[in-house]
């Protein structure tokens, strides 16, 4: 059994942003999971511009914004577990994950 201080389910824009914010505020044992093999959620499918202005000061397409968020995540010590679904979280704060790697 592995222990973590913070488990974030979903590596879309909100999940990545939450993980980075928690890291910036001093949380150092963070696990970010996603059922997909890559972070970014739906953003890679949004080819239009309009993303990133508030976060990065420039207007980006969805794929470019997802890449910028992934790069920001990579500069932290957040552990990303791709290809995993969270099946349940108990009252005792135990999570059961399924997918590649267990």
Notes on the protein architecture:
- By secondary structure, the protein is of the alpha/beta class.
- The protein has a single domain, classed as FAD/NAD(P)-binding domain.
- Helix content is 28%, strand content 28%.
- The protein is built from 3 helices and 7 strands.
- It has helices at residues 13-24, 53-56, 62-74, and strands at 6-9, 30-34, 49-51, 60-61, 79-82, 84-89, 95-99.
- The strands form 3 sheets. Strands 1-2-5 form a 3-stranded parallel sheet, with helices on one face.
- Helix 1 (13-24) runs parallel beside helix 3.
- The termini are close together.
- The mean pLDDT is 95.
Q: Categorize the overall geometry.
A: globular
CATH fold field value: FAD/NAD(P)-binding domain
- Low-pLDDT stretches are none
Specify the helix fraction band. 25-40%
Number of helices: 3
Could you give the order of strands across the largest sheet? Answer: 1-2-5
Describe the oligomeric state of these chains in a short phrase.
Answer: single chain
Summary keywords:
alpha/beta, 102 residues, FAD/NAD(P)-binding domain, 3-stranded parallel sheet, two-stranded antiparallel sheet, 28% helix
Care to give the gist of this entry?
The protein has helices at 13-24, 53-56, 62-74, and strands spanning 6-9, 30-34, 49-51, 60-61, 79-82, 84-89, 95-99. It is of the alpha/beta class and 102 residues long.
């Amino acid at each position: 059994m592995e222990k973590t201080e913070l488990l974030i389910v979903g590596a879309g824009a909100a999940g990545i942003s939450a993980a980075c914010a928690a890291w910036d505020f001093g949380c150092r044992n963070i696990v970010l999971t996603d059922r997909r093999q890559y972070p970014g959620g739906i953003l890679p499918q949004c080819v239009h511009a309009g993303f990133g202005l508030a976060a990065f000061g420039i207007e980006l397409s969805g794929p470019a914004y997802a890449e910028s968020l992934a790069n920001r995540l990579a500069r932290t010590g957040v552990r990303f577990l791709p290809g995993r679904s969270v099946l349940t979280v108990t009252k005792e704060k135990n999570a059961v994950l399924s997918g590649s790697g267990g």
